[in-house]
Design brief:
With 93 residues, the protein is an alpha+beta fold. It contains three helices and six strands; from the N terminus they run E-H-E-H-E-E-E-E-H. The protein has a single domain, classed as RRM (RNA recognition motif) domain (Alpha-Beta Plaits).
């Protein structure tokens, strides 16, 4: 199995969720929940209790007369066991 790339999503909403124990990561489109669970547990040494996934569809953009489309993005919302946290999100508060 190849190494899964977890990119933390830093926004107002993700910081609000991080205070409640839910951390948001951008993951490749081909990733499933089991792979995300294993990657987060291995990378951050926490126990994952739940994973929700959502695909944000890319917007259609126009530059003069050329139409284009932004890439789709898959986000994983990872809930960790009560009392645990991911230090990566603690500094952004």
């Amino acid at each position: 199995m190849s190494q899964l790339i977890l990119t933390p999503k830093i926004s107002e909403k993700s910081m609000y969720l991080a205070e409640r124990g839910i951390y948001v990561f951008e993951v490749p489109l081909s990733t499933n929940k089991i792979e995300v669970t294993k990657a987060v547990e291995a990378a951050f040494k926490v126990n994952v209790t739940d994973v929700n996934m959502v695909i944000a569809k890319g917007k259609v953009k126009r530059f003069k007369q050329m139409l284009g489309r932004q890439s789709n993005v898959k986000k994983a919302m990872v809930k960790v066991k009560a009392g645990q946290s991911i230090a990566l999100f603690e500094g952004a508060k």
